[in-house]
């Protein structure tokens, strides 16, 4: 029914994923790093949904994993932000380069 | 003008939205703007899911990502200082490393992805709601319960982490 | 894909249909807001023994129109230190999901924008987007009252989403579908859902009041403590958009109540004629919806505002356990007795009566305890009289 090949969706997903990776590597603000992790999770969602459409599977196996990724993403961002806020309370910075007190 | 043409146009717009907004998140120095762009990326992604015929996933996407996660991130933005590093974003030691690792793999994967030429088939007629529900509550009932335990653990963990001690 | 009328290309017709639907929804929202503002002012006036607007037009009917024109003509003021993009985006983020939610509301058989299979999920999804707009509005204004209003609103809306969704899920369990038209169609005759699962209706109604920021839950914009909450820095038509969005949300919540619990378009004489029937259906639907809009206004004129901690404890300590119990009971009873919904109805009515009886009882006990504590401290408030 669709005019768009599956590969197009996968390519978008790949590009989005690597933008997320680049963001995690380049940005130093902990909140922005969390955002970029969310982008990567989202890219994975797109790939999973697209592939679950590929074989015409009737039982939505791929989409089920997307539901679980939603759960993991929500848990991850809640705990991640809690950690960021807790560390911000101890040291007044959210710059991950300056959080090196555990370094030997 | 055919239905397929409209679909392609929508796909192109959504792609531009997703990639552009995601690049904006990485490049923008203003964190508030990045948060807004993130919400936009998530909305465009929901559009992609609709295009793939997964409306239920799209609805959950908006409900969880836009309604909950973006709001949480905004809280994070509000409670922490706004300024990012004073010096330029791209003149730090991790940038070459990032470019080295990310660019070749991204290009390779994106090129490889375009070799999947078969069109995605729509799921069951109408909507993916019933098959999805059947899968979640029948085949994957146990993982579903485990996921709920994970959420509970995350909630308690977040509360414990952020709660101040009484004597503070 | 069905071909369009007049031999139009189906793809072209799809786009045209979308445009028409958007225009209709926006028109509906704005006109509904005009009518509701007039109604609200008149009803408040009647309840408070005043006359309300009378000067502009017959019975003051044109007053809200005049106000709207005034709003449109106002200067667009933006404070200097506001966060530019956030400030501009916030009204749009609040307004557009509300308009989009009109797509799935079933006005009559056949008179519905799109009969989505996931209609109810779609509505909750759009409702959750409002939070984002309000938080952004509060943050962008760069004003502590706005920020507190926005943050309070986020807490309130996210909290009340839980009982709201749990109440909706109860209905979905009983009906077995998320599609709005199917839910309406399942309530033929007098067996409306309000008689089967009244507790879900009551909890949804309370949560709906909170979700639309109406009195007694209008804490985000509590004038006496927060100036106007997240609306403080907004003026002109940007403020107007928030205002219209609030009325639009009230209408959409009332439409959901009508469709889910009160039989939607069903009413006398709906099935008589293929053309007259839908028109009558729209009429019944509108009448039922506006009845609940009137109840919202009545509540506004009657109840005092909650305090923020009372608001949160009402949600987390009372509504969520209650709706969870209701959902579990309903699911278990539906599994045990798949043939009949009578046990579900009985359980629901028992829970509702227990809820209605227990709340005043515990309130009274708390009040007695409070008075006893005050009396022990020798306070003049102890006897219950006001301080002179």
Please give a structural write-up.
- The complex is a heterotrimer of chains A (104), B (168) and C (388).
- Chain A has three helices and no strands.
- Chain A has helices at residues 6-26, 30-54, 61-90.
- In chain B, 74% of the residues lie in helices and 0% in strands.
- The model of chain B has no long low-confidence stretch (mean pLDDT 78).
- The radius of gyration of chain B is 21 Å and the shape is globular.
- Chain C has 388 residues and is mostly helical.
- Chain C has 13 helices and no strands.
- The model of chain C has no long low-confidence stretch (mean pLDDT 81).
Supply Rg of chain C. Answer: 23 Å
What's the mean pLDDT score of chain B?
A: 78
- Oligomeric state of shown chains: heterotrimer
Structural class per helix/strand content of chain C?
Answer: mainly alpha
Number of helices of chain B: 6
The percentage of residues in β strands of chain C lies in: under 5%
Count of beta strands of chain B: 0
**What is the tally of helical segments of chain C?**
13
Most extensive chain-chain interface: A-B, 76 and 91 residues
What is the helical fraction of chain B, as a range of percent?
over 70%
Low-confidence stretches of chain C at least 5 residues in length (pLDDT < 50)? Answer: none
Q: The biggest beta sheet of chain B, please?
A: none
Q: Spell out the helices and strands of chain C N to C.
A: HHHHHHHHHHHHH
The coarse silhouette of chain B is globular
Distance between the termini of chain B: 67 Å
Structural class of chain B: mainly alpha
Q: Roughly what percent helix of chain C? A: 55-70%
Report the principal-axis shape of chain C.
globular
């Amino acid at each position: 029914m669709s005019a768009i090949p599956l590969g197009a969706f996968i390519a978008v997903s790949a590009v989005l994923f690597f933008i997320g990776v680049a963001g995690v590597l380049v940005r130093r603000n902990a909140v922005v790093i969390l955002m970029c992790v969310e982008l990567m999770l989202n890219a994975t969602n797109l790939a999973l949904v697209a592939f679950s459409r590929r074989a015409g599977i009737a039982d939505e196996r791929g989409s089920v994993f997307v539901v679980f990724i939603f759960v993991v993403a929500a848990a991850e961002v809640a705990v991640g932000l809690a950690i960021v806020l807790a560390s911000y309370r101890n040291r007044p910075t959210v710059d991950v380069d300056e959080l090196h007190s555990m370094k030997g | 003008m055919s239905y397929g043409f409209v679909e392609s146009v929508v796909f192109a717009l959504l792609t531009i939205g997703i990639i552009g907004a995601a690049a904006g998140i990485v490049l923008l120095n203003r964190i508030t703007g990045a948060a807004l762009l993130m919400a936009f990326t998530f909305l465009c992604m929901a559009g992609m899911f609709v295009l793939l015929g997964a409306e239920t996933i799209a609805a959950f996407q908006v409900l969880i990502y836009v309604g909950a996660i973006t709001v949480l991130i905004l809280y994070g933005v509000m409670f922490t200082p706004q300024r990012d590093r004073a010096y330029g974003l791209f003149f730090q030691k991790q940038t070459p490393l990032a470019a080295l690792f990310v660019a070749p793999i991204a290009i390779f994967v994106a090129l490889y992805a375009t070799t999947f030429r078969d069109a995605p088939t729509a799921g069951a007629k109408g909507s993916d709601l019933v098959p999805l529900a059947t899968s979640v509550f029948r085949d994957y009932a146990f993982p579903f319960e485990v996921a709920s335990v994970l959420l509970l653990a995350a909630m308690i963990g977040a509360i414990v982490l952020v709660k101040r001690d009484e004597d503070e | 894909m069905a071909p369009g009328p007049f031999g139009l290309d189906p793809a072209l017709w799809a786009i045209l249909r979308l445009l028409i639907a958007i225009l209709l929804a926006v028109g509906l929202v704005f006109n509904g807001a005009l009518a509701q503002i007039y109604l609200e002012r008149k009803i408040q006036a009647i309840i408070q023994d005043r006359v309300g607007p009378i000067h502009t037009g017959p019975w003051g009917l044109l007053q809200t129109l005049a106000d709207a024109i005034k709003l449109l003509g106002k200067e667009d003021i933006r404070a200097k230190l506001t966060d530019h993009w956030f400030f501009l985006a916030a009204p749009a983020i609040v307004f557009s999901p509300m308009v989009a939610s009109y797509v799935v509301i079933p006005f009559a058989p056949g008179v519905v924008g799109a009969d989505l299979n996931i209609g109810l999920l779609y509505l909750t999804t759009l409702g959750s987007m409002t939070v984002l707009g309000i938080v952004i509005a509060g943050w962008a204004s760069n004003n502590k009252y706005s920020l507190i209003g926005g943050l309070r609103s986020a807490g309130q809306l996210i909290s009340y989403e839980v009982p709201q969704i749990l109440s909706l899920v109860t209905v979905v369990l009983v009906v077995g579908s998320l599609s709005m038209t199917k839910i309406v169609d399942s309530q033929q005759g007098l067996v409306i859902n309000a008689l089967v699962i009244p507790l879900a209706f009551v909890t949804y109604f309370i949560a709906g009041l909170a979700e639309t920021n109406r009195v007694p839950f209008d804490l985000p914009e509590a004038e006496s403590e927060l100036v106007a909450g997240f609306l403080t820095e907004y003026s002109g038509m940007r403020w107007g958009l928030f205002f219209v969005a609030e009325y639009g949300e009230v209408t959409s919540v009332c439409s959901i109540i009508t469709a889910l619990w009160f039989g939607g378009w069903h009413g006398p004489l709906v099935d008589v004629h293929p053309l007259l029937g839908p028109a009558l259906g729209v009429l019944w639907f509108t009448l039922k919806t506006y009845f609940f809009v009137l109840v919202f206004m009545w509540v506004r004129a009657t109840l005092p505002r909650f305090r923020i901690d009372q608001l949160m404890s009402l949600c987390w300590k009372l509504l969520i356990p209650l709706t969870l119990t209701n959902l579990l009971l309903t699911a278990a009873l539906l599994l045990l007795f798949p043939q009949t919904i009578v046990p579900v109805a009985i359980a629901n009515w028992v829970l509702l009566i227990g809820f209605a009886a227990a709340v005043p009882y515990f309130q009274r006990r708390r009040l007695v305890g409070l008075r006893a504590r005050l009396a022990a401290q020798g306070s003049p408030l102890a006897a219950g009289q006001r301080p002179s």
